[in-house]
């Protein structure tokens, strides 16, 4: 076996290699700049791990443009840093939940996920690199800060330029790097994940649901949005659960997601919504580029808001074998997520945690055994089976509930609102705004905290009056390790429990995206069938006035409404 040599190459830092809500996301062209990707990978290994030598790392991504090149760079730099073993998805492909599952299953020291999630892909779009720690979850703030710090001081990276590995072929490849063994294990991207799902759910009962009884098959449509979930949904829904091939669409991963924005929401998955509206299917779901997000629809396109989806799953967890075994520990949601799950937690007598936006904040609670199920308004739902949100898991959870309750999605939701009341929720996104006016808008809102006339002020709109009870910039102290995250979004709470939240997205690659979240609780049974639009209209207007959003951003209409 050739004894490969490590080269130490000099480099200089790049500005802005600061991971956002979920990893470093930038235009592909930026990652293609000479040494840009090399620097960041070296920073992950040196800043994110105590010592990369001797470690095992999982590598894979959503198959977007530049993924293969990045995987090759990672393999060479890991070899240069004396990493002992890499577990790589075939052709560099692994969904984000699959990476998390593999890290945990093989007790790896971490994982490198190549994705910009729901951001578009292709040579003129985005790429991203995210580091996950040994618990399988996104690196916490302290680790991403250390990675960033390293990137600002980097002087050299270590690489084995002559190491060539065929990531298209499943199996083990052994190399010798300066006298020591370096192993690359290329794995089938789906195998381990499917086995994991079989341990969690009752596949027999799902198979019978899909088969239907007495000649009325359960028909559904699953949209992979040309992201990484394609091979997973084919294997699980068609091969394992027996659904006809035509129940899955856009199930071939494409480097540019077919030119679409691979984000499962009412705007970017409008085709799926339209197909469901035609009435043939009883259930619909879509996933984002890397397979951690999900959108759930019922017959005729009945939309399940992610905050409600979380609450319904929470209230029905006991029909899933995994939770029958582990018991229900506690629930959590991100701060802007609608509080429907809070009501389920209180009814079941379970703990409820409210964390900042970002899945990384759930990890410690899960590791400490205090959290079973959590979710975010941004179409993320998941449990402590891994440390990432998991789109396919959420669909299997919903199908388990449908199999158990033998009711439609819509009637399950309606029964839930009857029992708990309804948390009306909407989110307005203003994408690709200029950064500085958005920052000024946030500063303007922050300043209201010290305006003594703001708390107690009354805001009237369309005959409704809302009185401000409290305003703050959300901060969170992790109950497990005491770490503190500040400035996580402006919250304005009103006397009747309604609230407005404003924050800037942490997942864009350029410019700024403003997110405005509005929520109001309704316990009046006569109003439960109203639309969020009619129920929340006055509060939306009030939010726009208080934030002076149009004035600061120049936008009169949002890009996406959820
Ligand atoms: C990613 C993270 C989520 C988070 C979302 C928020 O998907 O994995 O945990 O909720 O980003 O994104 P934003 O653009 O609102 O910062
Ligand atoms: Zn994602």
Attached small molecules: 6-O-phosphono-alpha-D-glucopyranose, zinc ion
The largest β sheet comes out as: 8 strands, mixed
Q: Would you tell me the overall average pLDDT?
A: 94
List the uncertain runs: none
Subcellular location: Cytoplasm
Organism: Artemia franciscana (Brine shrimp)
Catalytic activity: alpha-D-glucose 1-phosphate = alpha-D-glucose 6-phosphate
Keywords: Cytoplasm, Isomerase, Magnesium, Metal-binding, Phosphoprotein
Keywords:
28 strands; alpha/beta; binds zinc ion; Alpha-D-Glucose-1,6-Bisphosphate, Chain A, domain 3; 7-stranded antiparallel sheet; binds 6-O-phosphono-alpha-D-glucopyranose; 3 domains; Alpha-D-phosphohexomutase_SF; TATA-Binding Protein; isomerase
Description:
The protein is α/β, with parallel strands linked by helices. The protein folds into three domains: about 5-190, Alpha-D-Glucose-1,6-Bisphosphate, Chain A, domain 3; about 190-420, Alpha-D-Glucose-1,6-Bisphosphate, Chain A, domain 3; about 420-560, TATA-Binding Protein (2-Layer Sandwich), CATH 3.30.310.50. Helices cover about 35% and strands about 25% of the residues. It is built from 18 helices and 28 strands. The strands form six sheets. It has an eight-stranded mixed sheet, with helices on both faces. Strands 21-22-25-26-27-20-28 form a seven-stranded antiparallel sheet. β18 (about 375) and β19 (about 380-385) form a beta hairpin. The radius of gyration is 23 Å and the shape is globular. The mean pLDDT is about 95. Bound molecules: 6-O-phosphono-alpha-D-glucopyranose (G6P) and zinc ion. 6-O-phosphono-alpha-D-glucopyranose binds near residues 376, 380 and 507. It holds the Pfam family PGM_PMM_II. It catalyses: alpha-D-glucose 1-phosphate = alpha-D-glucose 6-phosphate. Its EC number is 5.4.2.2.
């Amino acid at each position: 076996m050739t004894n490969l040599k490590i080269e130490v190459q000099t480099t200089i830092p790049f500005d802005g290699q600061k991971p956002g809500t979920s990893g470093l996301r930038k235009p592909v062209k930026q990652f293609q700049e000479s040494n840009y990707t090399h620097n960041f990978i070296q920073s992950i290994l040196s800043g994110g791990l105590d010592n990369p030598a001797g470690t095992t790392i999982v590598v894979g991504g959503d198959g977007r443009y530049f993924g293969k090149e990045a995987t090759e760079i990672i393999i060479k730099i890991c070899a240069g840093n004396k990493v002992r073993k890499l577990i790589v998805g075939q052709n560099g492909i692994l969904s984000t939940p699959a990476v998390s599952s593999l890290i945990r299953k093989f007790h790896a020291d971490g994982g490198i996920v190549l994705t910009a999630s729901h951001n578009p892909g292709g040579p003129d779009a985005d790429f991203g690199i995210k580091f996950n720690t040994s618990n399988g979850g996104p690196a916490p703030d302290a680790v991403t800060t250390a990675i960033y710090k390293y990137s600002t001081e980097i002087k050299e990276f270590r690489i084995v330029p002559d190491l060539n590995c065929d990531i298209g072929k499943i199996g083990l490849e052994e190399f010798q790097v300066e006298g020591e063994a370096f192993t690359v294990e290329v794995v089938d991207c789906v195998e381990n994940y499917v086995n994991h799902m079989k341990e969690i759910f009752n596949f027999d009962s799902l198979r019978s649901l899909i088969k239907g009884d007495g000649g009325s098959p359960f028909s559904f449509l699953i949209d992979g949005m040309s992201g990484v979930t394609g091979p997973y949904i084919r294997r699980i829904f068609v091969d394992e659960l027996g659904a006809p091939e035509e129940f899955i669409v856009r199930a071939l991963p494409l480097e540019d997601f077919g030119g679409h924005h691979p984000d499962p929401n009412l705007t970017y998955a409008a085709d799926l919504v339209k197909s469901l509206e035609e009435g043939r299917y009883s259930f619909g779901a879509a996933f984002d580029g890397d397979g951690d997000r999900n959108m759930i629809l019922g017959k005729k396109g009945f939309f399940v808001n992610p905050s409600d989806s979380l609450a319904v799953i929470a209230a029905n967890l006991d029909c899933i074998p995994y939770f029958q075994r582990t018991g229900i520990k506690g629930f959590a949601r991100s701060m802007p997520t609608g509080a429907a799950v809070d009501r389920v937690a209180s009814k079941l007598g379970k703990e409820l945690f409210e964390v900042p936006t970002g899945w990384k904040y759930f990890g410690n609670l899960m590791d400490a055994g205090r959290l079973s199920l959590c979710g975010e308004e941004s179409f993320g739902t998941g449990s402590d089976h891994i440390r990432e949100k998991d789109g396919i898991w959420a669909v299997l959870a919903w199908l388990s509930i449908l199999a158990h309750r033998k009711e439609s999605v819509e009637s399950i939701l309606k029964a839930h609102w009857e029992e708990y009341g309804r948390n009306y929720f909407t989110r307005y996104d203003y994408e690709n705004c200029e950064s500085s006016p958005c920052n000024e808008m946030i500063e303007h809102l922050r300043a209201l905290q010290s305006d003594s006339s703001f708390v107690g002020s009354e805001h009237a709109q369309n005959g409704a009056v809302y009185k401000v009870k409290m305003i703050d910039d959300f901060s969170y102290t992790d109950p497990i390790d005491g770490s503190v995250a500040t400035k996580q979004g402006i919250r304005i709470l009103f006397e009747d429990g309604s609230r407005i939240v404003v924050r800037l997205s942490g997942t864009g690659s350029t410019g700024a995206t403003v997110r405005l979240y509005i929520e109001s609780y309704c316990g009046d049974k006569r109003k439960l069938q109203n639309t969020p639009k009619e129920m929340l209209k006055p509060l939306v207007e009030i939010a726009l006035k208080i934030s002076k959003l149009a004035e600061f951003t120049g936008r009169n209409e949002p890009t996406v409404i959820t």
